[in-house]
Design goal:
By secondary structure, the chain is mainly α. It has five helices and no strands. Helix 4 packs antiparallel against helix 5.
């Protein structure tokens, strides 16, 4: 009986520890990675090795917007999308090390580089 109780208690503690690993920065990283694997990002940068398309997003527009962004710096380019992917990998490292502020700053730069993806 005690062994069953100990196993149950350790399972509950293990589940709570796993939920603590899902940091806000990790959630943003996941969202940006899905955005970079979207059809719009592939139109801009092409499908890079190791990446797959993410389809069926509930937040995706039904079609790409015909108009260009009003701010020229927001227009995504192949180089910017590639640089954003690199920054996201850096953010993953910072998040693993527990540096939330650094992770958020890196993600802000990545979002700026990505611009308004179609």
């Amino acid at each position: 009986m005690r062994i069953t109780t100990l196993i149950l208690a350790s399972a509950i503690l293990g589940c709570t520890a796993l939920s603590a690993l899902a940091t806000p920065c990790a959630q943003q990283i996941g969202a940006l990675q899905r955005r970079l694997d979207s059809i719009g990002a592939v139109r801009v940068a092409g499908l890079e090795p190791g990446h797959t398309l993410t389809t069926g997003s509930i937040k995706a527009l039904p079609q790409a917007l015909a108009e260009q962004p009003s701010e020229p710096r927001l227009k995504p380019t192949r180089e910017n999308v590639s640089a954003a992917r690199t920054l996201i990998q850096e953010a993953v490292v910072e998040d693993r090390e527990g540096n939330q502020r650094a992770c958020e700053n890196i993600l802000t730069d990545a979002k700026r580089l990505m611009g308004a993806l179609p």
